[in-house]
Amino acid sequence: MTAFPRLSELANYLGEWMPQLGTAAGNTLRMAVLAFILAVSLGLVLALARLSSHRLLARFAAVYVDLVRGAPLLALLFLVYFGLPSVGIVLPAFIAAVVGLGLNGGAYVSEIFRAAIAAIERGQGEAAQSIGMTYPQVLRFIVLPQASRIALPPLGNYAIGLLKDTSVASLIGAPELTLRARDLSSEYFMPMEIYLVSGALYFAMAAPLAYAVRRLERHFGQSGR
Amino acid sequence: MPQEQLAAATADPLVRIVNLGKSFGAHRVLSGIHLDVAKGEKVSLIGPSGSGKTTLLRCVNYLEEPSEGHVFVGGQLMGERLVDGAYRKMRDKEIALLRAQIGMVFQSFNLFPHLTVLENVCIGPVRVLRQDRKSAEAFADALLEKVGLADKRKAYPDRLSGGQRQRVAIARALAMRPKLMLFDEATSALDPELVGEVLAVMRKLAEDGMTMVVVTHEMGFAEEVSDRVVFMDKGEIVEEAPPGRLFRAPAHARTRDFLRAVLQKKPMS
Amino acid sequence: MTAWARALPLIPSILAALLKAAVTTLEITAGALAIALILGLVVAFMRRSRSALAVLAAETYVQVFRCIPVLTQLFIIYFGLGEFGLRLSPLTAAIIGFGLNGTAYLAEIYRSGIDAVHKGQAEAALAIGMTRPQAMWWIVLPQAIRTSLPPIGNYGIGLLKDSSIAMAIAAPEITFQATAIINQTYLSTQVYLIMTAIYLAMSLPLSHAVRLLEARTGRGR
Question: pTM of the entire structure?
């Protein structure tokens, strides 16, 4: 048990920690952005696969989504990082984290897209088909542009969740904010101070995103529901 | 009952509305309303939509807070208290106590969907009046009998027709043994074939001597049941008269225009 | 694949050990959910309070907890409080951590549930003489909770999976136990697959139940 350090002392410590934590926060952001791109691409593919008339493809997508959503993110990360080497695929921790977060996020994002597409289709799919468009045309020109608007607020919420979930990647030793905080905490024996600082850094990254999402939700409030 | 007799019979009106005004922001919905309702009297409020009749009704039981003026019910100032010459808003509890004596029936029924018909009728007496459940249920059953729904006591509102729901809502209000009943377009949300059953219950209530203030589009009902009809337009009372006079010989052009427009669409019964 | 051959006879004992740890997983989930259900309601009420201070405190709570990873919260409660002499067991720390984190989410769920109740319901309650708190308690809240049940169910399922993170503070739940077994057997793929299967066996039926509940409450309105 240590006494709470005086403010001046804390300022000194902060001077030592901040550069390291700042760099690590940059890694967190990089990890989140890469995983987000992977998740949105995969999510779009999965959503379209579930809508496709190809039975097997639709079924595969549905099973993928159910399984991934039913399992913990941590389990997926462990399987990617510790499991894939047994079939000859060895990934560095950072890449494994991006892949795991992306595979996991793809399932969630596909559900967001699916709900958005369903919301538009109910009203307008038939109208568009009745003016002679084919189904892919309807999807491409009528449904998707509007659906992506509806999907924006939930995608924003997903991004916030993803940003926080990158912390779980520290458990496979991926270099990011929480791993750095853990290292510092075992070096300085000041876990409370260090984790509060890392928490503040997460807050600084997530809060603007949360603010933007709330603005979006209010903006779409009338039409987006 | 002619008004002069009523005034003689009861010195103090049951409802007295004095210089009532209401604005929502810059939008003025009521101004300069004076209206007395004697005990036992039935008053209908008619007028085009947006004329302020619903807002006026909602001010009577303080669901809507007046911007100016006062409402007295049974001699009690609604929602405010005079303290050292200044009006102060009552506490939630005191307002609730006053509202408990005034029944209100809404256009959209507003039955409680998570409660059975019997529970809908009982919840006021049990939770507000603190009656024991047995006697509350006995009275509720009597009221359900009166509105013709004794067999629906265990049903949930979503199993009832609109007309049945509105009759339950009336029973729910009566369960509080109110001294005044307010009806806010009680039949406007109903399919035409269900209007009759609700009006029948209201008519019975009127015959029992209940004091009623009724916002309605049913001109036939207003003529038949009311002692007095009040025509409102643009947030003001344009004229008030016994139904015979107001419907047959309206004094104001605005009243005439309104009646002509309404009666053209729906012939008066 | 010799690892699989080696794993095969061990599967019963691995399964038994993981299922035993599943009890801890359920303890964390249930304990945290209970805390969140109650405190979430308190925070939701605070947000509707007339006191500006209470509103500010509640809003801040929700925003802060929603913007910080639950792992960080667990570290603060377990390691951070330990630094100041308050040593909680990993299990207790996990329940408190997930409970406080869940409070922010439940407050949001309750809020949208309350907002979804038609305004006429509270008015009808006031009209028969209820006070505002009575109208909330007897009329609005029961309906709000009914519409909140599916999202609460989904949150509970999320919690069940997220409790795996508690391994980071050595709470003896499934994932922690799995890692311990791997440290002895070096059968990482096999053990993690069995572990994942156990999570799926718990979460998939629950998801199905929530979907049924959703369909039912959807019809009931």
Answer: 0.88
